[in-house]
Design goal:
By secondary structure, the chain is α+β, with helices and mostly antiparallel strands. The protein folds into two domains: 36 residues, no CATH class; 66 residues, Immunoglobulin-like (Sandwich). The chain contains three helices and six strands. A six-stranded antiparallel β-sheet has the order 1-2-6-5-4-3, with no helix packed on it. Strand 3 and strand 4 form a beta hairpin. It comes from Sporofaciens musculi. InterPro entries: Spore_YabP/YqfC, YabP_sf.
Length: 104
């Protein structure tokens, strides 16, 4: 890639579909997760996922956790999934995570 940073297609589409919000976020010098309420996922191996900036849990079983965010849904599939804790804006999921999907 010769040191060139390429933004994911989804991020480019969001920036193009919300030019005013993105401009305000840039001018405010706040991180986009704060200014736009974007979800932040921290994944440790295949066993742990921490998610910030979510709106609610839509579905929760030991093989699927579906979460609503401001920008759409996040679908976590795996085995022995467990929501260890959740607060108003952060949650932690443990288990054998097989996939993480973004749906709009």
């Amino acid at each position: 890639m010769n040191g060139i940073f390429m933004r994911p297609k989804r991020q480019r589409q969001e920036e193009e579909s919300h030019p005013f919000r993105n401009k305000i976020a840039e001018l405010s010098e706040l991180p986009k997760d704060v200014a736009l309420g974007m979800p932040i996922l921290t994944v440790i191996g295949q066993m742990e996922l921490c998610l910030e900036n979510y709106r609610g849990i839509l579905e929760y079983t030991d093989t699927l956790v579906r979460i609503q965010t401001r920008t759409g849904q996040i679908r976590i599939t795996g085995q022995k999934l467990q929501v260890v804790y959740y607060t108003n804006d952060e949650m932690k999921v443990n288990g054998h995570i097989q996939s993480i999907e973004y749906q709009h």
